Amino acid sequence: MFYLFYFAIIILIPLWAQMKVKSTFARYSRVPSSTYRRGAEVAREILNANGLYQVGIEEQQGQLSDHYDPKTKMVRLSSEIYHGHSLAAAAVAAHECGHAIQDSDGYAFLRIRHALVPVANLGSNISWVLIMIGILVHLSGMLLLGIIFMAAAVLFQLITLPVELNASNRAMNQVVSLGLIRNVEERETRKVLNAAALTYVAAAAVAVLELLRLVLIYTGMNRNNNN
């Protein structure tokens, strides 16, 4: 019964976060900003205001596929955001510019996250193989190794939280100080940014819960092997 409840939680939390993001984005993508600037124009104005003339802006396919690429110094916006005149478009474009500003400022958590990418990718790819082998053949050492690899991936997700929250705070400061939204639109814009942050919070919470569950399995297996 406990495991049914547990798995229901780790499935429902991400689903709820995704539904919240999609519903909030859908709602405010229908609300035009008072300045009626396209997402690409919002991004360009923020980047220029911070002296980031070298950072480019590209349109790309996919919904909510927006991101900043630190290697190519490129803000990539989905078509809906790139061409959109809505509060949602302004919020998302500003958020990605927040990452570009972090990169320019040498924001510590962003640097740590970049450094952890290869370790996190390795941990994500190999951890469950080691964990399943360890559980199936009752090798606590193999399970522990899998947990260590998984912990690296979890650490990456935890480091992502301050990076994303800080980018949203920077985004709000930029759109307000540059007059890209009006004061009466701040609440709605923040709702879009907060909803997006929920996905990262949910992912981190689920990852930590799963890591703790595996640690309990390991301690139980280790105890049984010593008896």
Automatic annotation (TrEMBL):
GO annotation, biological process: proteolysis
An example Gene Ontology molecular-function term: peptidase activity
Alphabetized UniProt keyword annotations: Hydrolase, Membrane, Protease, Transmembrane, Transmembrane helix
Pfam families per the UniProt record, alphabetical: Zn_peptidase_2
Transmembrane segments: 128-156, 192-218
Keyword Hydrolase: yes
Keyword NADP: no
Listed name of the protein: Zn-dependent membrane protease YugP
Gene source species: Neobacillus ginsengisoli
